[in-house]
Amino acid sequence: IWLIMASSWLSRKKRLALYHRDTYQCMYCSQYVVTCANRSLKTQHAFMRAFKNSMATIDHVIPKMDVLVLCCNACNSSKRKDTLESFCSRKGYNSRAIKQKIRNVYG
Q: Is 90:83 a contact under the CB 8 Å cutoff?
């Protein structure tokens, strides 16, 4: 289970919709993520410190475009600015299955 921290560049409403849409799972490795969005600020910081190595993020699948997916910190850090294909090849993930999941989300 991973922790997802609040992002200031994306509104709370959009973030919560994204969490729900992606069923609280990393789009790449399917690991479940946990949000601390409903915790108080004081509790949020303590929670994030406790799970600092397990934080999750929101990724731009295609850099500089609004194709956003929920993903764990490990996948997002590893992907960096790589293309989906090169990232999947390097990590041993099935890029076809991931592309299909993204198509299902974005139509």
A: no
SS3 105: helix
Check whether 107 has a pLDDT greater than 90.
no
Reduced DSSP (H G I as helix, E B as strand, rest coil) percent helix, strand, coil of the chain, to 5: 45, 20, 35
Residue 62 corresponds to which tokens in the numbers above?
Answer: 């295609």
Q: Which two tokens stand for residue 25?
A: 């799972």
Which of 31, 45, 35 is closest to 76 using CA atoms? 31
Place of tokens 């609004």: 66
**Whole-structure pTM value:** 0.74
Query: Cα dist. 2→16, 60, 73, 83, 85 in Å?
Result: 16, 18, 8, 23, 24
**Residue 31: strand pairing partners:** none
Q: Length of the chain, please?
A: 107
Tokens of 72: 């764990």
Of 77, 72, 102, nearest in space to 87 by CA: 77
